[in-house]
Amino acid sequence: MKITVLGAGHIGGTMGRKWAAAGHEVVFGVRDVSSPRVAALLEEIPGKVRAGNVADAVAFGDVVLVAIPYDAVAVIVATHADKLAGKIIIDATNKFGAPVVNNLETIRRAVPTARLFRAFNSLGWEIFARPRFGEVQVDHFYCGPDDQDLPAVEQLIADVGVRPIWVGGLESAPVVDALGTLWVTLAFRRGRGRKIAFKMIEG
User: Fold this and answer.
1) Do residues 110 and 77 lie in contact, with contact meaning Cβ atoms separated by under 8 Å?
2) DSSP-assigned letter for residue 70
């Protein structure tokens, strides 16, 4: 797949690494292509990967992962709405403590034809980087429409190394967001640290 990753921070960089390793073409959309941090990231990643300005990156991908700061999303999607139209967009942003933790409605208002999913928001980047605890694979809960795009998004989640578990349509976003809030609560407020994850047990 051709994937645009908006942002080259911990989440965006980790997903880009994993997807490039799985054989996807990846372009990071960043404000400063010449940034030393971006250059260092690209040097670490083999395969078909590069960085470009946001406009060029958005035009490239069939799938767009939004992994930029929460408050930057509204301007970015409004500015590039024409290039985002009709694409699969995965919202990975969080604003814990806000009435709405995700940016799904912000994206939908700017890009009504976007095919929206909510994923990569409920675990720390370290877990996505190393998604196994011994022999146990980490589960990742996500939501989005049960349509022709679901298998592609599920495959992208699996390509990161976590087990994808579909929670439901976008009406289930508060459930997925609650898992992110739980992770933050346990990791920081309860002092368990960032190397914790979730597993669904089925009997």
Assistant:
1) yes
2) G
pLDDT attached to residue 180: 97
pLDDT at 48: 87
78-90 burial, b for 16+ CB within 10 Å, e for fewer?
eebbebbeebbbb
Angle separating helix axes 36-44 and 10-21, nearest 10 degrees = 30
Residue 158 lies inside a defined structural domain of this protein: yes
Sequence-ordered list of residues with C-beta below 8 angstroms from that of 181, at least 6 positions apart, any chain: 96, 101
- Residue 144: give its domain's CATH number: 3.40.50.720
Query: Which phi-psi region, left, alpha or beta, contains residue 89 (left: φ > 0; alpha: ψ -120 to 50)?
Result: beta
Domain of 57 in residue numbering reads as 2-189
Q: Based on the structure, what is the number of domains in the chain? A: 1
Q: Is 196 part of a structural domain of the chain?
A: no
Question: 180: Cβ–Cβ under 8 A, 6 or more apart, which residues?
Answer: 94, 96, 101, 121, 122, 123
Residues of the chain with pLDDT under 70: none
The position carrying tokens 């994937």 is: 3
Which CA distances in Å does 57 have to 6, 43, 80, 138, 182?
8, 18, 10, 30, 33
DSSP H helical segments within the chain, as ranges? 10-21, 36-44, 54-60, 73-79, 81-84, 104-110, 125-129, 150-160, 173-184
